[in-house]
């Protein structure tokens, strides 16, 4: 039991001071004897501290090794102990190497079979200053082609042998930018057939090539089933991605992250994704799995930083706090971009995607678009009839959005035999769109031509019995006390930050300098913080 506790304490950390755990072996003779008599405790040599790495290779005896090394910058001492570890690669359980093209000289010597290897990661350091980057070439006899326990394979900027015996029975496959070594669709299908237990599929610019001039895809001749797939990440153009998705069948509960760009042939047409998106988070009515039935999309976030870019994030949870949703993992994430000379619009892209997604259980809609120019009937068409939508958060709301909130449904057709009721009937909750909307949060909205339209919409909703009960206003411009007072007459709870922002406030000789200019898109500073450490740890082998 004590040795297991030691093993937990020694679990690798990112800190250079990760050898602090060795202090536990100094407590008593019994603890020291227990530590020295447990080879697995010493199976992760820290190459940044060569003296300890040499000693731990000895103490690990024949225990399976975890070899994690960055070969980008290595001193002669580090290279020496790394060479010793490579001679024992046949007992490695994990091999994780990062370096540049020169790393090939170590890989060519790895011709021994790896009977214990479960995780293999080889990553070429990205040199952005090079126009043409040669990929690392794995030898044909790498590991003698035998790693029967390999389950996790991650190749980053490496040549890929798609017919390699290493690509069998994997649960995790990640291929990043193999360059000219991308597979054909038949090669990829054949490879995936050998992975019936695959759980994660991550292909980054590693999909079968489809001509940029192609407009439609042929029907797949064969579809393979990946029943255990829980995460799929694809980065490519829309047709190459749709082509792969059309050839695989996976659970609707799988998390998807797709980063796609339109081509010259597709422009803003992303309809090839519709068959896959429409099946996401949908379940058969007779399913006996209660967990599956409780996992529909409940929160949808639309973000559009540019006119040729829109991002969709769908969550299966409802969080009252905006900041908490940001840290949740989306069940579906789409980053879509297209050429500037494409004829379509961002509005058309949003219509294609939102109509495909199963949103019947949606509770929260979040929109972040400072230049949103959607027509008011687009908002009505996409979200107005959702039966459970209770909350909308909008950053940069426009007049057309407010018009959508007050849109009245057309009257139902009257049977001629019943005649016409000439009296004006009182409006009912069924008369207005967004029937369950109760909370509205507006951020960064310009109220100069928005206030009256919003007030009218809120009054219409109140008359129909579907009043907005909570209205939050923050960082809005041209919003004054009298405007808020009018809103308070219609909405029970109005929260306003009290900020009065006018365009005149920005008319000055101020040069616009701001710390925020050096923030990334999430508001985090882009200047790195460097932590300095000594070359060698101060703990000496004992």
Automatic annotation (TrEMBL):
SUPFAM superfamilies attached to this UniProt entry: RNI-like
Superkingdom assignment: Eukaryota
Protein name per UniProt: F-box domain-containing protein
The organism of origin for this protein: Armillaria tabescens (Ringless honey mushroom)
